[in-house]
Design brief:
Length: 190
């Protein structure tokens, strides 16, 4: 595993000496390192998801049971698209993808257990439409008052829409579907 030690009088030949990178990438070194790295990453990910998740004396198992019960309701994410912008179908699909992945990234940092429950329940997403920016603002305010997670997409302005235009509002997922429905229940499907 370790190269033999050489005395100071022996000068290695430059033509026969392997570069340091080639020595490190030999299968006998690389494969065990890869396996150890994978196992360490898996361990750290699992331990991070359980670290610091008990609130006010509640155990993690009680939290998961309570959140997964959700009153017998499923978890869903609602994506609200502005109709006044007259976006094409591809643009709408792209903006909805930005909203879903933006919400996912936020929840990955703040509410990982909720995110995992949503993933395990099929990752339901509903796409609805609103009339304009004012209606979207009211929906975001209502969702924030209810304690629902929200994410707003601001377009970069490279194609159809002016830079900074707010195109899609993502709401949820949340433990209670009825809570999201209380905010978005009167909107039409896109």
């Amino acid at each position: 595993m370790f190269p033999p030690r050489r005395s100071s009088s022996e000068q290695p030949s430059r033509s026969r000496e392997e570069p340091w990178l080639a020595r490190g990438l030999k299968p006998e070194n690389f494969v065990p390192g890869l396996v150890i790295g994978f196992l360490m990453g898996l361990f750290l990910d699992i331990s991070a998801s359980y670290r610091g998740h008990s609130l006010k004396g509640r155990t993690l198992s009680k939290q998961l049971k309570t959140a997964s019960d959700g009153g017998g309701e499923e978890l869903k994410m609602v994506l609200v698209v502005r109709q006044d912008l007259k976006m094409g179908a591809g643009k709408i699909a792209s903006q909805c993808a930005h909203a879903a992945t933006g919400m996912y990234a936020d929840l990955l940092q703040s509410q990982r257990s909720l995110l995992r429950q949503w993933e395990n329940s099929g990752q339901a997403k509903i796409v609805l439409s609103c009339k304009n920016q004012q209606e979207m603002n009211k929906l975001k305010e209502a969702a924030d008052r209810c304690g629902l997670p929200t994410f707003v997409v601001a377009d970069a302005g490279r194609t159809q829409i002016l830079a900074g235009s707010r195109t899609v509002l993502a709401i949820g997922p949340a433990g209670r579907k009825s809570l999201i429905d209380s905010v978005t229940g009167k909107l039409r499907l896109l």
